[in-house]
Design a protein that fits this description.
The protein has 425 residues and is of the alpha+beta class. It has eight helices and 20 strands.
Length: 425
Amino acid sequence: MAELRDFAYPDILESRATYADRQIFSGLEWNVPDHEHCSVGVVSESTGPLAISAFEFQFDDSDDDTSREGEWTPYGVLAKQNETNADSIAACSWMQEQYDNGLIDNAWIIFAHIERHGAWSTGGYDIENFRDYNNAAPDICFGFEGAPGHQANHNRGGFGSGASGGGTYGGVGYYSATVGGLWDALLGEGRHWFNYANSDYHRHHSVGGDDFYPGEYQKTYVYAIDSDGDGEYSRNEIANGLRSGNAYFVFGDLINALTFNVTDKRNNQAVMGEDMHIKDRGWQKQPVTVTIKFKSPETNNNTDAVAVDHIDLIAGKITGKIDPDSADYTNATNATTQVIATFTSKDWKTDREGYNVITYRINHLESDTYFRLRGSNLAAGTANELDADGNPLLDTEADNLGLDGAAEAWADLWFYSNPIFVYLD
């Protein structure tokens, strides 16, 4: 799309000059051929908007312009590929190729409101799609939006009954909210496939829209590394932080700080998104220690006092990547995944810095395992919100409490961490 190059990018440059203390990326909401939407971002300091413009022209399902067919670009001659699922995979491969060849500095393709249109057959996504994308572009396609925007909508996320799972669960999509579901199936392969949230802001709920302002209700926290030591985080360093998986998302400022790590008996450590390899001597026990540190603000953006009621530690076995020719390639479950521990305030202590600290020891890790967290402000068994085991219920059930729209969202808060992978070698 020439508009991205000729009109949007000059606005980006103006905004960067106006808000010099912010990092503003070049991106778009991609209309994925044969599927739902997707968030695409590109960092290309030397060629500016040329890559994102070439990507959109070639691969966006809604772009009917053919005027640039055959145009030469630094990324090759432009050709339309924007109709089929195969084209969506080709788009991911194209972006990976530009990254591999150093023609762009960085990029991400993170799939959005993935359950909203149901299965692939009705315009949504099935698990084989995410496996295909990750196989084609492991450095670019590394996650999805587990928590959709439009959280102030009557149906949170704007998800109707036709969505996979019938709607959201505690504001989170079915694929991520279900223990042992689609996300866990991907993690069980050891895929570095991570979870994020954004606002999808169109119009604020106070003036008839479905949305909170960006950052008002839901946030994704990303741990970036200042690799060049200049005291600032560049766009490239932030993109690397996204790819690392050292990130978590949260609703309503239930927490505003989280560290989550696993250490072995030799004090080797892994954080969110990382792999840890432990030498397995067979006869010798392999203990690991899980440490969780978190803070909550006194009040959130709705001026509500916030407090974590409980945190679930979720674990599942890692069994390796599934071959595309296997019948299991379309299997969207991980039967090994379960909540292995639940922590409440009696299980954590507050340190001098105000962090609540949980330490949990697993005396004998018997197989390759990943660990992830989720936490809520509500107790297990809360009517119409959580079942007796602490799993979020379908959000339409909250209507029975007389809650709707923004009020429902502020009453039902969650956070989800990304996983840590531990291997016995």
